[in-house]
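Morning, I've got a small favour to ask if you have a moment. You're getting the sequence in one-letter code plus the fold written as tokens. Thanks so much in advance, here it is:

===
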Amino acid sequence: MRSETKVTAPILDAAKRLVVVGRAGVGVDNIDVPAATARGVYVVNAPLGNIVAAAEHTMALVLALLRRVVDADRSVRAGEWTRSKFIGRELRGKTLGLVGVGRVGSEVARRASGFGMTVIAHDPFATEASARAAGARLVELDELLRKADVISLHVPLTEKTRGLIGAEALGRMKPTAVVVNAARGEIMDLDALAAALEKGTLGGAAIDVFATEPLPADAAIRKAPRTVLTPHIAGSTTEAQTNVAVDVVEQILDVLDGKPARYAVNAPRPPAEEAGGMAWLRLAERLGSLTAQLLDERPAQLALAYGGAVLELDPLPLRAAAVKGVLETFSEQRVNLVNALDLARSRGLAIAERRETEPARYASLLSVKVGSTEVAGTLVQGDPRIVFIDGFWVDVPVEGHLLLTKHQDKPGLVGRVGTLLGEHNVNISSMQVGRLHPRGEALMILTLDDAVPDEVRARIGAFEDINAVRTARLGV
């Protein structure tokens, strides 16, 4: 969908099978994102597809204002030829003030530098390095309003940005300054803007977005002087329409294929591919799932430990994936990266975390502990592996049916278990035995192609020297 379609809580309630909402554009203020999150519905957008289009339109509006292009066009069409009426101003040497220096703002900054403008920016979420990379210098909002010759808005609509540019802010601007808004209509008070233009305390304004669209016939800004108004077309180019459509469809296909979306606005972004990407998320989810399946009771607390190189990753997606694995074991409700952490909070599942710079045995290690049960894993040549279960170092794949036994390490026991499984046509694909010392307590993990029938599991549990037997299912 695009900006005019509203996705509300009643719509989400009616769409029982809905998995993902795709916004072909950047802003998602027309989607009830909290309601989607509560229902485990991904909301994805296309933040990169139209940034060039929006940046170019911003520069077009600035040029149209300063060179009085629209007024001059009307004059010529009316049969006039009064060149002296349309003496404009150059961009070179002027100061551009960007309120927001994110993706679009950065592109505007780079283009403004090409015109010889000095660029300053206010953005509480930007770093000095990121602003400098775009060719801008960070300043406080008050300084920006006082110094800028051109002020361009590039912030999302939030409670803090709603009405950000009102009568007070406009009063701090130079009387020759021009202001451009191609972000969100609610950021600017249009009535206050129209009044400033009428009084001559502001040099001009170019607006592409409005709080009410289409713009009402009685809107004061329609009659205000020194204005250029366009009907929300900043992101509307042939190239941008293709880009945002492809971005959204690719993400929808990923979500339907069980993969995280690149630009989900209500789910954590997976690690970069060069850092392991989806493999880390799959590992975290399977660790959570295995831990939960080895428990006898519902968990009250989950502890995550990050060791070694995994400390360089954003922990949020790993946390969400591990919680998803745990909760899926006990819940019939849809659980995914979108709602896993919210569900954990609502169910009182406490989450603790610790960080270890030097993990045992492996350069990277992620562990999940619930109660007295702890499992850990890492990536081996890019593939996720379970390498630790309840005190035993092992090497187990994260796919398949598992049979786990704790037993006394004595000759013949492994053979008896294998024989019994063979008699019931259960095929073994791999076997691991971890032990602390010879003939002491050991942990055997069999990876199977088939689930173990309950009666077979019971017979294995009755074998002499077997202390405990568990089955688990990972990714099947």
About this structure: The two ends are 34 Å apart (CA to CA).
